[in-house]
Amino acid sequence: MNYFIKKRYFDLFISSILLIILLFPIMIIYFILKIFYTTNPIYFSKRVGKNNIIFLMPKFRTMTEDAPQVAKNKINNKYITRLGRLLRYSSLDELPQLFSVLFGKMSLVGPRPALFNQKGLILLRSKKKIHHIKPGITGWAQINGRDKISIRKKVELDYYYYNNLSLYMDIKIIIITFFKVFNFRNILR
User: Is position 186 within any domain?
Assistant: First the structure.
């Protein structure tokens, strides 16, 4: 069986299990955001998916409505809400992306989807053909620096992943991600 078919089954299986396990915490976060903020608790960010096709990626809202759509390392902290800071710090803001995996827009593992306006990142990934794979909730670049690395280094790590695609690599990245999330290092606050 082809890697991409196995990967899709793997994504469906794991994301379904995670959604069942995490449904209660997802609902609690949703209602807390709904109570404390008048806007929709789910924010849909324009992201670049497979083959550079734009899709809407869901996240729990962590910023005020007037926040610009820029990369995390360029956002002014005045736009991040107190609860949003906690959600980002714990990576809980990413939980709604499991639905994107379920619906086939994302994978559990792959390069993080670029914002639609991150032209440099999109161009560098396209030159190396990285755009031919689905973006992921986590990836090789995330476990090797996340927000603390340059765009060039991120693309270099994404390219390494692209050249070493395997279910073994995906499982390894998921396991390392689990430990990194609970370590809270290399996350911009």
Answer: no
Q: What is the span of the domain harbouring residue 74?
A: 3-181
The pLDDT score that the predictor gives to residue 90 is: 86
Domain assignment of residue 32, yes or no: yes
Please count the other Cβ atoms lying within 10 Å of the Cβ belonging to residue 148: 12
- Name the token pair of 61: 């809202």
State how many domains the chain has: 1
- Report yes or no on 98 lying in a domain: yes
Gap between the Cα atoms of 74 and 77, Å rounded? 9
Separation between Cα atoms, residue 7 and residue 108, nearest integer Å = 9
Q: How much is the pTM?
A: 0.87
In a domain, residue 189? The reply is: no
Q: Could you report the average pLDDT of every consecutive run of 10 residues in the chain (189 residues)?
A: 92 96 96 85 94 96 78 69 88 95 97 94 96 96 86 95 96 92 55
Please classify residue 103 by burial: count the beta carbons closer than 10 Å to its beta carbon, then call 0-12 exposed, 13-18 middle and 19+ buried. Answer: exposed
Q: Which residues contact 7 (CB under 8 A, 6 or more apart)?
A: 107, 167, 170
Query: What distance in Å separates the CA atoms of residue 132 and residue 42, rounded to the nearest whole number?
Result: 27
